[in-house]
Amino acid sequence: MNQQQIRKFRKRLIGWYRENRRDLPWRKTNDPYCIWISEVMLQQTRVETVVPYYQRFLQCFPDLPSLARSDLEAVLKAWEGLGYYARARNLHRAAGIVIAEHQGVVPQDPDLFGKLPGVGVYIRAAVTSIAFDKPLPAVDGNVKRVLARLMKIGEPVNRSSFHRSFTAAAQQLLDRRQPGTYNQAMMELGALICMPGQPDCPRCPVRSFCSAFKENGVDRYPVRLRSEPVPEYRIAVGVVCRNNRVLITRRKNEGLLGGLWEFPGGKIGPREDPEAACIREIKEEVNLHVEVMAHLSRVKHAYTHFKIVMDVYRCRYLGGRVKLSGPVDYRWIRLEEIDRFAFPKANHKFFPMLRKVGCR
Ligand code: SF4
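Above: the input record for the complex with iron/sulfur cluster. Below: its predicted structure, written as tokens.
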């Protein structure tokens, strides 16, 4: 596209966006804190999933000081089920830094904002363009797909080493006078019209600018390289029952599920019996002797880079005092108290069965 076409493209795109954009809660505010929360939640997560989380999160932490003041555990509880828990931990840390080092005001300067925990290239561009009109292109998976089709970019969208090509294309098209609106318009086009499987080209406001459409080659873009199959791990977990209470442990504040509560357990060895693995893991992790009473449930769960098959056992406490190796905290709780703690989604899958059989 030449400069004149690019200007027309922006006008058409933004005009369409103003008419057709979805009425989403984060679009009704100019508060950079709220925009930041929404963009962090929206990474790799569907809009319909995010809306109730966003609303609940802002009820719990309506502004940046309230988030900074709160316990990490309360933040994780509000985030529970949304996944990618490092995002919640980073937001909490970043809020503390904004209070301590920026007088409680979200930095407008993209370089300063970009130094906060969890603020990568995409979040930096999305938040500072939408909240402060900074001229940075926000390039997520949706936008890459649209760019690949519009400009016939043949480099794979799912390899970070080619990200630069997409950023360069996005820079070229960006409307520097209204970058926040432009970025949101591109994302909305990707979400509503230029969708992954079946783009709705007949309804597309920018089809006259789209190289792939003009050449009848929409199905060839974007190019994706085949991903490695994700590994599957077998896990054994024990619900240790003692005096009508069960033992839960808290993971350290790092990694995929850092800071969340869970039941003790771990990977089953290559030729290991799952019940034996459960007893061994409980001994290694919390230093208790237990015996398996019954198999409670088998849970399958997929994370981004691996899958698990988790066998859950009800176990009887036999002896020993809790000594932690790995987890950083523990509690003996009644089952009625379980909702006060944040657990990974895979654990929630066996809670109904656990509630039914109890911990006697
Ligand atoms: Fe996407 Fe089709 Fe529009 Fe091109 S014409 S941008 S492929 S929806």
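Notes for the reader.
The chain has a mean pLDDT of 95.
Residues 232-357 form a domain with the Nucleoside Triphosphate Pyrophosphohydrolase fold (CATH 3.90.79.10).
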